[in-house]
Amino acid sequence: MRISATIAALTVIVIANAAAQQNAMKIRLTLDNSKAITATLIDGETTRDFVSLLPLTLTMNDLFGREKFAPLPRTISAEAKRTHTYEVGNVAYWSPGPDVAIFYRHDGQKIPAPGIIVIGKIDSAVEALNVPGSVRVAFERLE
What we know:
By secondary structure, the chain is α+β, with helices and mostly antiparallel strands. It has helices spanning 2-23, 45-51; strands spanning 25-31, 35-41, 56-63, 67-71, 90-94, 99-103, 117-122, 135-142. It has one domain (25-142): Cyclophilin. Helix content is 20%, strand content 36%.
């Protein structure tokens, strides 16, 4: 009886994880028309509003040697949880900008008020953004 309950619980977890992966949105970021990296977006109103802007090409400037950021063409939904911390690889929305930011290095500093809304995470090779100055980034949705 106990083994059946354990198997049933594991089955539910596996199905839930598979469903979450099916709903995961992927985008490609092409840096300076050469290096392509991908990101997995977190489902939410802010993310869906960001995706509605795609395809989008932005010149992303460097900030504090930790992130690349650029203003978006319009504000997007800010009705989501905000945070004052970040992880390397986070793709985030800074509503006062309104800016999109990608964190490529951690400097131990907190994000000032009102905080950021994390909308996704770079899958790998985030270090490609660790270059001096600005970088041109083309964002596109992957189907």
